[in-house]
Amino acid sequence: MKIGIISAMREEMQELLNELQQTKITTKGKRVYYEGVLFNQEVVLVFSRWGKVAAAVTATQLINDYKLREIIFTGVAGALNKNLNIGDIVVGKTLYQHDMDASPLYQKFEIPLLNKKGFEIVLNNDLVNACVDFVANFNNYIPKEKSEPFEIFNPKHLIGTILSGDQFISSKNKIDKLLIQIPEADCVEMEGAAIAQVCYEYNIPFSIIRIISDKAMDNSHIDFQRFANEIASHYAKAILNIYFSAI
């Protein structure tokens, strides 16, 4: 069985594509699926494009077309937790769709018919340990000439809560509202909870790793493509290399 790996942007997985061997390319639904061997593991790589619908479509196609043992999502996110800095890692434990509101028929954030507000992830301990190893030996994996321009010096990881929605969060007002509603939220992005729902419905193990690219307001203008290509993509390569060597 294969491991499915999804990112929202090609830049977030470019280093993985560079390492992929025995590549077979399939195009379907305007998505390109790269099937091959990555660090001695059979994988399928695909970038979903931005947003919950795009992510859900991609995950569903991936599940239906390939026999998967798990799906891993990797990419960037904006920090909500004031203790997070650029370059820190959030491993998702609980994911909410923060723009889901079918009240008064359902409670806010509740997914109709599923009786769930947040999607609880069964943590993959080997993947968590790979993140621990990565941050402990950060300078061995990411050269200073790449990390220092983004002021990344001693990144940390945490296991936390991720919010997803079809909105670019770039104001203090929006952040304050999110934290009032879900005070334990650590970061915000646009895809993770949608894929978590798909994996829940198909009973596929799911993990998500988010690299903090900005504080979701004061520096939300950051060059995402550059950060994704020069930082997030290298994070994914190193962490998955460590993880794959352990399984």
Walkthrough of the structure:
The chain has one domain: Nucleoside phosphorylase domain (Rossmann fold, 3-Layer(aba) Sandwich), CATH 3.40.50. Strands 5-9-8-6-10 form a five-stranded mixed β-barrel, surrounded by four helices. β3 and β4 (41-47) form a beta hairpin. The protein has eight helices and ten strands. The chain has helices at residues 14-19, 52-65, 125-136, 138-141, 144-147, 172-181, 192-202, 224-246; strands at 2-7, 21-28, 31-38, 41-47, 68-79, 89-97, 118-120, 157-164, 185-189, 206-214. The chain starts with a strand and ends with a helix. With 247 residues, the chain is of the alpha/beta class.
Summarize the structure.
The protein has 247 residues and is of the alpha/beta class. It is built from eight helices and ten strands. The chain has helices spanning 14-19, 52-65, 125-136, 138-141, 144-147, 172-181, 192-202, 224-246, and strands at residues 2-7, 21-28, 31-38, 41-47, 68-79, 89-97, 118-120, 157-164, 185-189, 206-214.
Give the fraction of residues assigned to helices.
Answer: 25-40%
Multimer state? single chain
> Mean of residue pLDDT?
93
CATH level 4 superfamily: Nucleoside phosphorylase domain
